[in-house]
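Homework help board

Subject: predicted structure for assignment chain

Our instructor gave us this sequence and asked us to write out the predicted structure in token form, then describe one feature. I got the tokens but I'm not sure how to describe them. Can anyone check?
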Amino acid sequence: MPEKTQVLVIGGGPAGSTTATLLAKEGVEVTVLERERFPRYHIGESLPVSVLRILDLLGAREKVDAAGFVRKHGSYFEWGDEKWDLPFSHLDGIDKYSWQVERSEFDKILLDHSRSVGARVVEEATVRDVLFDGDRAVAARYRVDGEERHVDFDFVVDASGRAGVLSRQRFGNRRFHEVFRNIGVWSYWKGAKDIGRGPKGAVAVCSAPGGWFWLIPLSGGVLNVGYVSAKTWFDEQRGRHPDLKSLYLAAVEQCPLAVEVLAGAEMGEEVKVETDYSYVADSFCGPGYLLAGDAACFLDPLLSTGVHLANFSGPIGAASIGSVLRGEVAEPDALRFYEQVYRHSYQRLLVLVSLFYEAHRASDDHFYHAQTLTRAERNGLRLHDAFLNIVAGVEDLADASSDQAYEFIANRFTGRDGGSANPLTHHNTSKDNPPTAPGEAVAGHYLVHEPRLGLRAANLPVGTSTAR
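My token output:
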């Protein structure tokens, strides 16, 4: 007899575990199939403050707090000739910190928490294929303990990360950006000096010729130092160095702050590399399935958006699926809500990252010019929809073309209209929330948490179903 579950989640990273936990807490039968055995290594250690809201929804903040991760109270940027402190203390609300985490431990905490609230978690289970009845996802084949197995479901959430079980392997609809086609190289150092810049526990980001550096302080006195540059630079440098370690060390010499704090430190044995990490699927959902986290989209690591987008997909995905399973909202309406809300969040961050590169006006380096969105990419983003709350005065865009909209936002963000040249001064990332009131409705619906997590139609009384 084949297995059966209401919701199958492929992948146990932050997107998968967040979705699974929220559904399980609502009484939905959830099965998580995770390819690896946790803890396992993953990059993406500097968490945005938005993660606190999600952890509170999960009921997992105390568990993460108790893990002993470095508390992050903001960020520090040396960008061109400018130096910016970006403390979380300036944000609205009570949450003024996040963490610099070892993702192996952070992700395990979240996956174990899913188990604790009733999700069935199967590790070292590799999904071979998702089966469809017409255009609807209905089942999956997977391998665990050397056996091939089959599981039927009502919904599947593809949270398989870069592997992209649906978007990459089945549909082939993952598009890599012409911008941000970069390479990151990094390693871990012991015995580094304190960064000594910015808020306590800050990640430091430093521009350099041909790219930029990150310096992330981790627990146990470990410092992650990474360099991001264009693939063309990387290819040129590979021919000038005997190995990846030599290339990496030569790159580090370009960053005065890294040279300062790494004096006398010991580098780990391994230098890691990642490439082509900025992409988006043409569609985030369809009949019987949703794409979440890195399986749907991923951005340049400049502003640490990866975990935010992964966690952000959890509540809106769980609310959409839960409402459909309970017969409260018609599935096409719930899917439109998920697609539009998640894509808008991704798009606004895409433009923000591009504008941050554009703010490095002191540089004539090809790398920085190559990171800005082309006219075609701008026109494809539907900026009017994606930027309703991104800056004050956005209502002035009502009659503007897409390209005019981009220029308006660019002028605000990069300081060309006056004020700070730091684009984050004009953007409070804590505002990147799903719609939670009738006046904020997307596709006619908004997110509610009471009496349970779900969607509500903006034009109907509480308790009225829109399912047909």
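Reply (TA_rk): Your tokens look well-formed. For the description, you could write something like this. DSSP finds 13 helices and 23 strands in the chain. That's the kind of observation they're looking for.
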